[in-house]
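Quick question about two entries, pasted in order.
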Amino acid sequence: MTPAVSSPHETGSAPALTVAGIAALLASGCCVAPLLLALAGISGAWIGQLRRIEPWSPWLMALSFAALAFAGRRLYRRPARAANCGVDDAACRQANGAARRWFWVVAVLALVPLAAPLVAPWFY
């Protein structure tokens, strides 16, 4: 009997990755989103209203990195040995590659608001 491969829902990383992604998107809403909208040809006076999120950006980034740390711990920690796993059972050692890929996508997404103030002078 081989155990099932752990999914992101079983490891508890899916909610943490979701929170990290949403927090990173909101944190970049004040700075990166207007630039991306202008590059896409979308304009209007309402874009200036996105600056209201700016005071919350550091807190949202902290939430994003805390959720990423939690998800990373759940995804990359050594799993406890199950009672029905053999010594060389490959199914017990197999990690969820899709969840790990999403972890790194969200991590890069969370780094965008941190890098935006550093690269912004190049565009102005």
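Here is the second entry:
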Amino acid sequence: MLEDLSQHVLDIAENSVSARASSVTITITENEAENTLSIVVEDNGEGMSPEFLARAVDPFTTTRTTRRVGMGLSFLKQSAELCGGTFSLTSALGEGTRTEAAFAYDNIDRPPIGDMPSTIMTLFMGHPEINWHYIHRIGEEEFSMTTEELVEVLEDRELLRDTDVGLWIREQISKALSEMTTTAMKRNKS
């Protein structure tokens, strides 16, 4: 079982890579005031047939050849529903896939968000050929980072594989999330 939500994001994003996506958007929204936490991963990959989509959250359905089970989506769906939330998976052949999981923010059984900065760093560095867009909202604050913006500055997409660049990416995300959390906490106390 995946222990935190960042591991689920990594699993879903790797599914997007396997589906030959050239663009993937990851959106995390934490809204304590509305008691919601949602994760959305959207890609422009190959998509799924209606028949495969109907079975996609079955743990014994997978496209992987290394093992015969695919537990990621089924665990995420179960976790969201057990935590007072919802799960949806939409896809169309040739158009891509959208995965969304929503949780009651204050549910005691909700998995922690985990190390999202390291997850995003891993995706950017591991698959620099993909146009990644990471959006994280906490309360009214929003942070966004795209590989396209980074490539514009770096002038070489392959530099996204550089360890120093990866560590900088992780540091910038960590710093932004910390600042947004502090701002949200101050607003909630007002």
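Reply: The domain at 5-189 is CATH 3.30.565.10 (Heat Shock Protein 90). The chain is about 40% helix and 25% strand. Hope that helps.
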